[in-house]
Amino acid sequence: MAAAAQLEDVPNESLFSELLRRMKCAPKPEKRIILVGPPGCGKGTQSPIIKEDFCLCHLATGDMLRAAVAKQTPLGLQAKAAMDKGELVTDDLVVGIIDEALKRPSCSKGFILDGFPRTVVQAEKLDAMLETQGHKVDKVLNFNVEDSVLEERITGRWIHPGSGRSYHSKFAPPKVSGIDDVSGEPLIQRKDDTAEVLKSRLDAFHKQTTPVIAYYSQKGIVVDLQAEKPAKDVTSQIEKALS
Ligand code: AP5
């Protein structure tokens, strides 16, 4: 009843476009996908395209944690120090966030997990969560990029904080420098997007996340992507992998 009352204030155009989206999505098959790769490999760039094509919910633990930090919630306060240093936050903290988010109605037909799981413990806990619902991970997209390419990608990235839209000063520039194409609002650079913090983030990736790829390889569900190629080529590789 409360939800129905809230809908009364939603403009007609928004209701119709959501209705059309749901009709388009109804026949699409369920899919549960994980994106894994080092910082700046393109997970956040490709996720909105996969979300749109396959009608999945997109859960990015980095975005969720940054939102909690910005709101200064207890969770955000716990996560901030590790994030600023480029270290991973605790498994319990991120597993709790994902467990909660997977219950959203928009995730009922599947999901794209972007930045989770990042440790084998997280992967095991995710499997256990899905098992209770009779589900499993279908595919793990492994974004392969040499470390040497990532510094330029990370230090040139600009973000629209409201939507998470990301740009790059050289590879994907906005129409007007420093301004979001859609909202006209200013773009910002992430606090951890420096060459110095990138070193710790890469270290965390190689030590703690590479074993996650081995964990899913044993299950035969990893697809290797050549993520050094231009973004459009990576999108084509993903479409092929998921079709
Ligand atoms: P998170 O936000 O997940 O950061 P990340 O994994 O380091 O990934 P990024 O967002 O930096 O990179 P991306 O792959 O999305 O790259 P993008 O597409 O934007 O995590 C941040 C922090 O949160 C962590 O350090 C940790 O502290 C914490 N955290 C999060 N999840 C956690 C977990 N599960 N457990 C514990 N802690 C956790 O691309 C980068 C740039 O390159 C963009 O400017 C883009 O335009 C450009 N670009 C993209 N693709 C291409 C291409 N093909 N060619 C040229 N340029 C490209």
From TrEMBL:
PROSITE patterns membership: ADENYLATE_KINASE
Entry EC no(s): 2.7.4.3
CDD domains: ADK
Gene3D superfamilies per the UniProt record, alphabetical: P-loop containing nucleotide triphosphate hydrolases
InterPro entries tied to this protein: Adenyl_kin_sub, Adenylat/UMP-CMP_kin, Adenylat_kinase_CS, Adenylate_kinase_lid-dom, P-loop_NTPase
Pfam families attached to this UniProt entry: ADK, ADK_lid
Enzymatic reactions: AMP + ATP = 2 ADP
Record SUPFAM superfamilies: P-loop containing nucleoside triphosphate hydrolases (SSF52540)
Domain of life the protein comes from: Eukaryota
Residues of the Adenylate kinase active site lid domain: 157-192
Keywords noted in UniProt: Kinase, Nucleotide-binding, Transferase
Family: Belongs to the adenylate kinase family.
PANTHER family: NUCLEOTIDE KINASE
Cross-referenced HAMAP family: Adenylate_kinase_Adk
NCBIfam families to which the protein is assigned, alphabetical: adk, PRK00279.1-2, PRK00279.1-3
Protein name: adenylate kinase
Species this chain originates from: Sphagnum troendelagicum
